[in-house]
Write the structure tokens for this entry.
Amino acid sequence: MSDVLRDLGGVARRKALLSVVSRKELDLAVAAGDVVRDARGLYALLEADEEMRVVEKYGGVLGLTSAAVRHGWAVRTVPAKPQLFISRGRRIRGPVNDAELHFAELQPEDVEDQVTVPEVTLDHCLRRLPFSDALAVADSALREGFGSRALIEIADLARGPGAPQARRVARLASAKAANPFESTLRAIAADVPGLDVRPQVRIDDGAFIVRPDLVDEALRLVLEADSFEWHGKRVALAEDTRRYNMLVVAGWMVLRFCYEDVMFDPDSVHQTLVEAQALAELLKSLRELLPHAA
């Protein structure tokens, strides 16, 4: 169960978990204390006590993805060690093996219960994390109710290192992304010239209505963050297969990407998307030249 929660970004709602595991498995994990359910209805990994022990040890503050998970936001990669902010003037003796230290001068209003507050957490994540990780956090924050205008304001106020990325992430972020898996695929696609995908676009072909994970309407290109594990039971897999077939017959190019490739081999996914974009552009040109044949 812990591995499932890590793949989902460290925190998840019951519906998301039940798409992967059974009710019995979830209830047993909670009863055993392997997974905890907080007051917001989120299920999370049981690591809070150890994190706070490390916070006390170094006199720091939980930040970045460690803080994001504390706020109930799923992250692309759950940190192996607590991510802490400490003052630049603080001396740490000996090697640090149980924490990932970062430096920042925080004000009292930036911190609550030894965790950076949501606004500061987002500012740090958008600036300091790799692009795909930053987008996963921003998507999840919006999904959990953080305002899109407030997110954009945080990015617009950013100055110095990381500010351009912060603004890019804030404008690309969407609450419609279901999980960090989908956010990461969108981040990879965002770096492909000529490709403009958006999450959960409604495609109404007359004979069917679907909402794929990512859609470039101009190129009639669909990207699915897809695997049997993520889509759950075999009935759902069968429905997905029928949906893919309908889209292809209707003239859409459909690409399916597995979790392992998106999360651990993004270069190969990027190259596939570069080639797919070129082919989709060619097909678009042919449709425009031969509209009656399209």
Summary: The chain has three domains: 1-43, 47-172, 180-293. Residues 266-289 form the longest helix (24 residues).
